[in-house]
Amino acid sequence: MRCPFCGNIDTQVKDSRPAEDHVSIRRRRFCPACGGRFTTYERVQLRDLVVIKSNGKREDFDRDKLERSIRISMQKRPIEPDRIDQMISGIVRRLESMGETDIPSNRIGEIVMEALARIDTVAYVRFASVYKNFQAADDFEDFVHELRPPTAPGEE
Ligand SMILES: [Zn+2]
């Protein structure tokens, strides 16, 4: 695994342990070149999912992107990080078990909203209000961008 700080590819695993009720393995990694420490998660991927946008474009499903948008909608909400991880894993499992490899982007939005509605009303409303604009634009990138709080210019 390449070091995200210096690009060195020879990093070491310091610790491995199950996370999220044993649906993933959390690995603490160490880069001997720069001393950087980072964490990776290993998960079962049942199948490769493809997102179909309303304009017909296809792109590989990106769990990290989904996770970013969900975490932003849950900012400053009193929700355990483990609970959020579990929810995201549940959403991905649902997508993977839909029987289709190609999934319309609006279907993903609906599933996320259903999951959020069960966990936190405020996060649900935040996500849903952006999702309405999202359906007009129907571009996941725009969607994630809109969810980003306007308070952090230049911060990525
Ligand atoms: Zn490094």
From TrEMBL:
InterPro entries: ATP-cone_dom, NrdR-like_N, RNR_NrdR-like. Keywords: ATP-binding, DNA-binding, Metal-binding, Nucleotide-binding, Repressor, Transcription, Transcription regulation, Zinc, Zinc-finger. Binds 1 zinc ion. Residues 49-139 form the ATP-cone domain. Transmembrane segments: none annotated. It comes from the Bacteria. Its cofactor is Zn(2+). PROSITE patterns: ATP_CONE. A zinc finger (unnamed) spans 3-34. Negatively regulates transcription of bacterial ribonucleotide reductase nrd genes and operons by binding to NrdR-boxes. This is Transcriptional repressor NrdR. The lineage of its organism: Bacteria, Pseudomonadati, Pseudomonadota, Alphaproteobacteria, Rhodobacterales.
